[in-house]
């Protein structure tokens, strides 16, 4: 029983599960490809054609280590990680994160296959990707950083870009200004380095736990346990006070240096811009260990489905929870790729009282400082279909009565349109129709719809046979 439990927390097991569910969800590339630009260019070109599988690049130029990317490039794969259908993704995520489970310590890890310390470490042994033309160096994008609150010992984890500076020295940015930034700030005030552990190649549920926003006293490893429905299995760090997920593929233990700042960036961020803004912190690794025949994980760079979905899904869940407390008829929330998985939210409601659309806007903007645009539509509009959302704006919205604008609020530093301090303006659009609206949407009888579906399937099958 315990053996199967441990296997469930292994990202290699997850990759096998995805392949079992649908072979089209995993694409293995045998052709030689460079870690400099080519992998990012290839993944991006296929995504623009609507092709977003989990990629395994088995023949990376100059390296014997495969690269795995786009692990969470589709909602289907997030649902597979949770073991539920797509339509239950939000409700299941919400249910599980509400019941954190303490960790369980074990003594052995496959990651202890090879242990390097000090001058033995050389990150160039791994196929770290250079993503974009303006990037000054290769960047680790799937480094899940783990640290403990210097006062309470509560564990946090989050993704922070790592710019390769030397064999074991990296630039790191805490521009999200959340827990890790605060931990580093408090350590620095005491003249102390912050012990930080970089874990790569972890199960997607760890990634989902890291992105969610929870009260500061909640341990994110315990949130991960809630998502797994069992204790997250961890090991003690070799030379670090931080615990490590037992199935991590590659681990670097080290410190963020107090009082040290060095140039970091620019880096091709989720905004589809090269971001120059950075806190310019420095991370130095003193211990590195990994599994036998390791796989190197990279999160698809720039404005990618993986990068944006990783941020969007926990935020959608948070919004659904908050909105359900103030707007009884909330139906669905989508944070679309067009808003970089962060800045825009489309909300559908079953409107039962005038003013509910604006109430939903105020609730959403008050919950999440990242949101710049909130559009509220009626339940007959599919928020996952941007054309329908914009149709509602064009036919149910008037700027003189349905627009809300808020100026001078906290925003996102990486937003190129915000100030250097991240100050932004925010917009809400109530695209719900009045309750006494006389106009009705065009419809056809249900019998005609059923006939059309059957006929379409028959014709498509005929076309498929001819081709």
Key phrases:
Pnp Oxidase, Chain A; 467 residues; alpha+beta; globular; five-stranded mixed beta sheet; single chain; disordered N terminus; UbiD C-terminal domain-like; nine-stranded antiparallel beta sheet; 23 strands
Largest sheet: 9 strands, antiparallel
Number of helices: 13
| Span between termini | 49 Å
Instruction: Give me the CATH architecture of the largest domain, please.
Output: Roll
Q: Based on DSSP secondary structure assignment, what is the total number of beta strands?
A: 23
* Rg of Cα set: 23 Å
Task: Decide which structural class fits the backbone.
Answer: alpha+beta
The CATH class name of the largest domain reads Mainly Beta
Structure explained in plain terms:
By secondary structure, the protein is of the alpha+beta class. It folds into 2 domains: 2-305, Pnp Oxidase, Chain A (Roll); 327-431, UbiD C-terminal domain-like (3-Layer(aba) Sandwich), CATH 3.40.1670. Helix content is 31%, strand content 23%. The protein is built from 13 helices and 23 strands. Residues 1-5 have low confidence and may be disordered.
Helix and strand arrangement:
Layout: H1 2-8, H2 11-21, E1 26-29, H3 38-47, E2 54-57, E3 67-69, H4 75-82, H5 89-97, E4 104-105, E5 114-117, E6 139-140, E7 144-148, E8 155-159, E9 162-164, E10 169-172, H6 179-189, E11 194-200, H7 204-211, H8 220-228, E12 233-236, E13 243-245, E14 250-256, E15 267-268, E16 274-275, E17 281-290, E18 296-298, H9 305-326, E19 330-334, E20 344-349, H10 356-367, E21 373-378, H11 386-396, H12 399-402, E22 403-410, E23 423-431, H13 446-466
